[in-house]
Amino acid sequence: MSQILRRPRRLRRTDAIRRLVRETRLDVSDLIWPLFVHAGPDPIEVASMPGVLRHSLGSLVRSCAEAEILGLPAVAIFPSISPSLKDPQGAHGLSQDNILYQAVRAVKKECPGLLVITDVALDPYTSHGHDGLLSPDGNTVDNDATVEVLCRLAVLEAEAGADIVAPSDMMDGRVRAIREALDAARFLDTAIMSYAAKYASSLYGPFRDAVGSKIGKNAISKSTYQMDPANRLEAKLEVRLDEIEGADIVMVKPASYYLDIIREVRDIAAVPVAAYQVSGEYAQIHAAARLGWLDYQATRDESLLAIRRAGADMILTYFAREVAEGISRDQGSR
């Protein structure tokens, strides 16, 4: 007679049992779809991100309408700005002709129930590609001068209709300053999703292609303001500071290489935790699948499940629409 009293495999025996005891689930409501928009008349595919477009205004609105039908709660909109409109100060970010503000207004008019998240940073607009204003010597980003401009950007985004503004710049003190600026402008209900633990990762290359912030052949270093990938405790410090300053949601970026950080942030944060599955993570899965080295759908879904299991309450992912379609089909077949 067998002496094994506990047999965990009993709860793995059938699909029904596995679904019954599953600890982590991925739902459409967990996903945020990042979208790119440019001022041209037609959408353009991003070569380094298969299936991802720089949308025209019209195709962006159509995609957002599809997202709303699928039950996705939110989109995050990033502008791709013509090089002719860029300068060292990123002045076009404050222009009413900015395609981002046009896009937010158009999406909120067509899809009023869809949450719109906007990026608060200068890198789409600066000719040097940094997230802020350079110091007089040109060697680093001027923290406090940048924060002043970010406050103006956040208010303009809120005026256009953004539900959530998301400072991604990693300047010190910017969350408090943005909160005060929004409140002073009477945007009391506009939430802040802070890129609280944003690492100076090597995985952002395709994103910089998409928004056009890659300057020259070599990637610029943002290590003086984005976090060192070697650091763990620093992430908890950044999260605590952003919570104190008024962040409504805190984010860890990237996601898949930083599951330990997501877990630690979830354990200490009193606000929801977002994780951004970045462009390089997306591109890696596509590249390996195209070479036949990985099963595309299984790897895609496992990657997202791992991010949820680590503790993320929501995930920004370029897979959002196709995963939402798959979940809807699965639910409809049961």
Quick take:
The protein is built from 11 helices and 10 strands. It has helices at residues 15-21, 57-70, 99-110, 143-160, 174-184, 205-211, 233-245, 259-268, 279-290, 296-310, 320-332, and strands at residues 31-38, 44-45, 53-55, 74-80, 115-120, 164-167, 191-198, 249-253, 273-276, 314-316.
Number of strands: 10
CATH superfamily: Aldolase class I
Number of helices: 11
Q: What is the general shape?
A: globular
CATH topology: TIM Barrel
- CATH architecture classification: Alpha-Beta Barrel
Main sheet attributes: strand count, strand direction, barrel closure: 8 strands, parallel, barrel
H/E topology pattern: HEEEHEHEHEHEHHEHEHHEH
| Spans where pLDDT lies below 50 across 5 or more residues | none
Helix content: 25-40%
Q: Can you identify the CATH class? A: Alpha Beta
What is Rg?
Answer: 20 Å
Number of domains: 1
Fraction in beta strands: 5-15%
Structural class of the helices, strands and pairings?
alpha/beta
Task: Return the average pLDDT rounded to an integer.
Answer: 94
State the strand order across the main sheet: 1-4-5-6-7-8-9-10
Structure characterization notes:
With 334 residues, this protein is an alpha/beta fold. It contains eleven helices and ten strands. It has a single domain, classed as Alpha-Beta Barrel (TIM Barrel), CATH 3.20.20.70. Helix content is 40%, strand content 15%. Strands 1-4-5-6-7-8-9-10 form an eight-stranded parallel β-barrel, surrounded by eight helices. The relative contact order is 0.13.
Defining key terms:
single chain; 334 residues; alpha/beta; TIM Barrel; eight-stranded parallel barrel; 10 strands; 40% helix; globular
